[in-house]
Amino acid sequence: MYKRYPQLRLSISLIFLLILSSAIQVFGQSLSGYVYNQKNKPIPGVQIYIASLERGGVTNAKGFFKIDDLPQGTFAVQFSDVGFSTKIKHITIGASSSSLQIVLKESNLELPGLTVTGTPQATDALSSSQSVISINQKQFQQNSDITAMSALENQPGVSLITTGNDVAKPVIHGLNSQRVLVMVNGVQQDAQNWGGDHGPVISPFQVNHVEVVEGPSSVLYGAGALGGVVNVLGPSLPTSGNGTPELGGDIYLQGFSNNNQGAGDIALHGASGRFGYRAELSHRTAGDINTPDGSLSNSGFHMTNGSFMVGTTQPWGTVSLNFDHFYQHLQVHDVPPSTAYAPLSNNLLHLHANIPTKDFRLEVQAGYQTNDRRDFNSATASEPDEYFKLHTETVKIQAHHNPIGPVYGTIGVSTMIKSNRTPGPDKLIPAYNMQNFAGFIYEKAHFGVFDFSAGGRFDTRNLSVLNTPGVTSAADRKFHAFSGALGAVAHLTSNLSWSANLGRAWRAPEAFELYAEFAHEGTYQYDIGNRNLVPETATNVQTSLKWIRGNVVGKLTVYNNAINEFIYGDPTDRFDPASGYRIYYVKQANARLRGLDASLQTQVTNWLSLEGSYSMVRGENLKLHQPLPFIPADHGYLEFKLQKDKLGVFRTPHFSFQTVLYAKQDRLAPHEPKNKGYTLANVFLGSGLNVEGTTIRWDLIIKNLFNKAYISHLSRYRDLPSLNPGRNIMLKIQIPFNLIK
Q1: The domain 229-235+248-278+316-740 belongs to what CATH superfamily?
Q2: Is the pLDDT confidence value at 2 over 70?
Q3: Does pTM top 0.70 for this prediction?
Q4: For the sheet containing 175-176, what is the strand order?
Q5: Is the pLDDT of residue 20 over 80?
C-alpha cells in the first residue's frame, strides 16, 4: 500500500514525528470547583466534559469536582445533569490552576450542549455561525429504532431516504448521498455511498451522540459537504477515577413487533491507571416488513457488529485506537417477488491523537476502511452478480493554536486515498483509484458581543479509472477547487444570538455518475451515466436566530443554496425491457435550493413540556424551470412530554405523544411519482428502575400507532409501489453492571 501511495507514507511518518516532538511538553494545571442548584445546594453526579481535550469528571456528594493534568489554553467546558439546564462555560487555564463556582437551573428540556463538528474547536450552539443539531445519548436511545440515522428523522431541516426499515440515508436541506458527509468520530465513512440503497454502516449500539451541521462544510471536511455533515460520535475512552470501574459494562436488549425483530448487545468497558478500554458485540435479526397492506416479501435482514477501543490518557495528551466491524445481510425486496440478497462487510480502523503543547493542540486522525459488498440475484446463486471492494485511507492533521489576541483557530492538512475494484461479472461502476490532498485554515475572533469566523481550503483530486470491460476504458480525470466560509455571530443577549454564514463548497463527480449504465436492483432504477460531467460548486447563504434559556429553546433558520452544474438523475418515461426499471439519465444544470427550518421547545410546568418543528425546502432546476427530483415534502411535528425526576420506584419517568405531519409533494420533476400527504402518531414511554443499586433503563416506543397506510416521497419503494412499514412496537432495555470496581 505504501509503495503505491508515497504521500500516505509521508503523512503517517509526519504523524509520529509530531506526536513524539509534542509528547515532551508536560503540563500539570488542574480545573476544580463546586456545582450548586439555584437554592445554593450542592449537586452530586454532575458530568463535566472538556470536549477538545476528551477529558471529564463528575461531582461528588458535596458538588466538588477536580480534573488534573490539563494544559494551558482556552476551552469550552460543559456541565450537565438530568433535570438541569446544560451549562457551557469558556475557561482559560493559565500557568496556575483554576477554580469555579457553577450554578445550574432546574429544567427538563433537552438543551443543546457542546458541539465538536461545526467548528474546529468545541463550542456552544449560540456561538456557531451555522445551524447545528446535537442529539445526546438519552435522545438517541429514545428516538432511534433499527438504524443509527433513524434518530434524525424529525429534526428540523433533516429527512431520511429509506429502503424498508433497515436502510436510512440522511437528507439535509434537500441534499443527500454524495452531498452529505457521514463521519464516524470525525473520520469520513466511505462505504459505496453513491447508491440510494447504501445506507451508513453504523451500529446504533455504538452511538453516544450525533451532531448535524446544516449547510456547506467543505472547509473543514472537504469535497462533498454541499448539504452538510453528520458526525456520529461513539463512547469516549474510559478514564480512571470519577466512578469508572476497572471493568464494567452494559447489556442492551431490544424487540420490534413489525418484523419480528430481536437484537442484543453486550459492552465491556473500564480503565486501570492511565489506560482505558472498551469492547462491544451485537447481533440483530429480522423477518419481512409488515405494512397495512400486507408484508413485503424478501425484506428481512440480519446484522452482526463488533468494536473495540484501547487508549491512554497521559499528562501530555490522549491517544486511542478504535476498530469497528459491521456486517449486514440484506434481502432485496422486489415486485414480482424476489429472493435476491446482498451481504455487506465494513471494517474501520481509526487512530486518534490529541496532544496539547505550549502554543497549540495537535490533533491527528488516521483511518483505514475496507468495504466489501456483494449482490446475489437469487437465494440459490453461488456467485455474486455484482461485487464491490473499496479500500479508503484518510489522514487529517490539525493544529489548534491558542488565542493570539482575540483570534484563535486551526490550520490543517488532509489526505484521502481510495482504491475500488469490481471483481463480479456485472460491472455497475468501474474499478478506479482516487487521491485527494488538501490544506485548510479556519480562524475565529471575538470582539465584545460579536464573533467572526473565516476559513479557506484548497483541494486537488486525481481520479484514475481503470480499464473495466463493459463499462469504460482507462481514463484520468483531475479536479481542483477552493472552498471558503465567512461567518458572524451577534450575541444580542446572554440567551439570544443571531448568526449568518456564507459558504462555498464543491463536489467532484463520482465514478458511478460518470460511467454507470446498468439496472440497479437496490434503487429500482436503470442508471445511465454522463462522461462529460464537471464538478458541482455551491454558494450558500444561511442566517439563524437562536434562543436558549432554562424554559425555552427556539431556532429559526433561513437559507439559499445556489449550485452550479448540479448533478442529478433525470427520470424518464422509458423503462428498461429486461428489468422493468425506470430509466434515469445523469444530467447537469444550475440549481437552487432554498427553505426554512423552525423549532421550539418550552417547559410549561416542572413536569410538562411542549415542542414542535416545521421544515420546508424548494429545489428548482434553473435550466428547465422545473422542480428538482427527490425533494422532501414540507413536514413538521408536535409533541407533548410528561416527565418527572422520580415517581415511586421509577427514576426520570417520561411519556410523550408525537404527531408527525407530511404535506403532499406536488412540486415534482417530470415523470416523478406523486405522493399524498399523511399524518402519523408515535408514543414514547420509559424510565429508570433502581434494582439493588443498579438503574435499569427501559423504553417502550410505538411508531405509526394507528397503522397508517402511506408511502414516503423519499422511500426507495415508491416506484414499485410498496407501502412504508405499519405499526411497530419497540421495547428497549439497558442493564448496566460492574465486575471489578
Answers
A1: TonB-dependent receptor, beta-barrel domain (2.40.170.20)
A2: no
A3: yes
A4: 158-163, 167-172, 175-176
A5: no
